[in-house]
Amino acid sequence: MNLLVFYGGTFDPVHEGHLSIARAAHVALRETIALVPAADPPHRPSPGASAPQRADMLDLAVAGEPGLCVDRRELARDAASYTIDTLHDLRLQHGREQPIAWLLGADSFRGLPEWKRWRELLDCCHFVVADRAGSPLDDRLAPGLADALRGRWTHRPDDLKESPAGRVLRLEQPLHPASATAIRRAIARGLSWREDVPPAVADYIQRHRLYRDGSTPDPSL
Ligand SMILES: Nc1ncnc2c1ncn2[C@@H]1O[C@H](COP(=O)(O)OP(=O)(O)OP(=O)(O)O)[C@@H](O)[C@H]1O
Ligand SMILES: O=C(O)c1ccc[n+]([C@@H]2O[C@H](COP(=O)([O-])O)[C@@H](O)[C@H]2O)c1
């Protein structure tokens, strides 16, 4: 069966690190990767760009990338963007038997026990975990997480197509150091940052004067 793959993030802004793991997942899984911008991301301060602006930047970033697309479903919900709610929405749309995977970086994955109803999430989708510098997956996972993951790890992408949910695939792609915090900080300080985002996204950031002073966005934009 085919596998639906969703990659959630704040994408404030989308950068080359995001794109490199989305491309690596597209190649490893041979599926389209849908990038899902969080409207109101839980567990972090308000983003520097509005949700529609972050989604627009994603549209620019995936243009000309055959294996990537943007899914705006979290922008349509008038509530915090909890992943469990998004997955329930996806299950309503695609049914209980459809293999579904959630792609995320190792730093997010290590924090999974802080997510809403995280144990339920492990049986609601597969996880594809991308290596990220500074976030080891081999050791020192929270004990509850390490226990919950026993028997779920796989290195075989096809395992994710053989059941609707429950496996965890480690994506061992080349590490990319980009971080949205570093990009926002560089813009605010007048340092160089354009090389870490696609040119069309860099132009958008400049045209909309984003991230210059750390102010919160106009929610109507
Ligand atoms: N360079 C990277 N390598 C691997 N994973 C990444 C990288 N950058 C982001 N991710 C992952 O992408 C997802 C979305 O990340 P997010 O939008 O928060 O970007 P970020 O660069 O971590 O942003 P911020 O610095 O604002 O926290 C997360 O699961 C995160 O772990
Ligand atoms: O559901 C949760 O409780 C939850 C907690 C933290 C993060 N998430 C999701 O994880 C993805 C990455 O989040 P972030 O903050 O690293 O951009 C994004 O889709 C978030 O909505 C989800």
TrEMBL record:
Gene label: nadD
CDD domains tied to this protein: NMNAT
Source organism of the structure: Luteimonas vadosa
EC number: 2.7.7.18
PANTHER family: NICOTINATE-NUCLEOTIDE ADENYLYLTRANSFERASE-RELATED, PHOSPHOPANTETHEINE ADENYLYLTRANSFERASE
Key words, A-Z: ATP-binding, NAD, Nucleotide-binding, Nucleotidyltransferase, Pyridine nucleotide biosynthesis, Transferase
UniProt domain Cytidyltransferase-like: residue ranges: 6-185
InterPro entries named among the record's database cross-references: Cyt_trans-like, NadD/NMNAT, Rossmann-like_a/b/a_fold
NCBIfam families, per the entry: cyt_tran_rel, nicotinate (nicotinamide) nucleotide adenylyltransferase, PRK00071.1-1
Protein name per UniProt: Probable nicotinate-nucleotide adenylyltransferase
Domain of life: Bacteria
Catalytic activity from the UniProt record: nicotinate beta-D-ribonucleotide + ATP + H(+) = deamido-NAD(+) + diphosphate
Pathway in which this enzyme or protein is active: Cofactor biosynthesis; NAD(+) biosynthesis; deamido-NAD(+) from nicotinate D-ribonucleotide: step 1/1
One Pfam family of this chain: CTP_transf_like
Similarity section: Belongs to the NadD family.
Function: Catalyzes the reversible adenylation of nicotinate mononucleotide (NaMN) to nicotinic acid adenine dinucleotide (NaAD).
